[in-house]
Write a structure and sequence with these properties.
The protein is an alpha/beta fold. The protein contains eleven helices and ten strands. It has an eight-stranded parallel β-barrel with strand order 1-4-5-6-7-8-9-10, surrounded by eight helices.
Length: 250
């Protein structure tokens, strides 16, 4: 299924964008600016993704009535394997106002045939008493590399209760390919479609087109909405999206 109209791609990308600022040198002012930009003249982004220490800042800026969800990360950025530590991170993030938490799965252990840590980590995060909306399992599919390993990681995360599968964090050397992402989408489809997918940090509207077309091909175009599909992107991607939409409106 093709998204041929650039304006349509920009509008669809805006609706599912998880506007992300996770750099180590991020400041409170950066987060305030990010949140202020999240509700645009062409509609809101789906979510902002901020470092855990700035969740309360994001909540303050966006307010309780904002349509923009607040997302953060746990087990970031290395994907360590200490389950209790990661669960505590998720619990604190929800308590401080996050609605969604992206949990980096312990992909190194999983790739080394550790079949316990990933499902234990995800199931414990799902059970935290402060949980609000989504727990996303960040698979680092590019690092898992082989399709059968990616599919097994996806299945285990879904069975443990993850509501979203994220292809990658954008912090690893190996990037997720469209074929690897298709495997993740097919596992979601076979899981009765009762989970969503987030694609890792995209840089351009052309990349957004590729991933929107992939999602539509596997799941159907009607499936693509903020409750089912997300695109992770920084402010540069938002700038490009708004440039296209502003030009159309002029």
């Amino acid at each position: 299924m093709a998204f041929e109209d650039r304006t349509e791609v920009a509008q669809r990308a805006l609706e599912v964008l998880e506007l992300t600022q996770l750099a180590a040198d991020t400041t409170e002012d950066d987060i305030r600016r990010l949140c202020e930009r999240a509700e645009t003249p062409h509609g809101p982004v789906a979510a902002v993704c901020v470092p855990p220490k700035f969740v309360m800042t994001a909540r303050e800026v966006l307010g309780k009535r904002s349509p923009v969800a607040i997302s953060t990360v746990a087990n970031w950025p290395r994907g360590r394997s200490k389950v209790d530590y990661v669960v505590a991170e998720a619990e604190i993030a929800f308590y401080e106002g996050a609605q969604e938490v992206n949990v980096i799965v312990p992909w190194r252990q999983f790739r080394s045939n550790d079949q316990q840590t990933l499902p234990n980590m995800m199931s414990e995060c799902v059970r935290v008493t402060t949980r609000r909306k989504f727990i996303k399992a960040t698979l680092e599919a590019g690092e898992l590399e082989e399709e059968f390993i990616i599919r097994e990681a996806a299945r285990q995360a879904l069975e443990a209760g993850a509501e979203f599968l994220e292809t990658e964090s954008g912090q690893c050397a190996a990037c997720c390919t469209p074929d690897q992402a298709r495997a993740v989408l097919e596992e979601i489809r076979d899981w009765r479609g009762e989970a969503g997918m987030k694609v890792g940090l995209l840089q351009s509207l052309d990349e957004c087109r590729t991933w929107l077309e992939l999602a539509a091909d596997v799941m159907g175009e009607d499936w693509i909405d903020p409750e089912n599909f997300r695109i992770g992107g920084r402010e540069g991607l938002l700038d490009e999206i708004l440039g296209v939409l502003d030009a159309k409106a002029a």
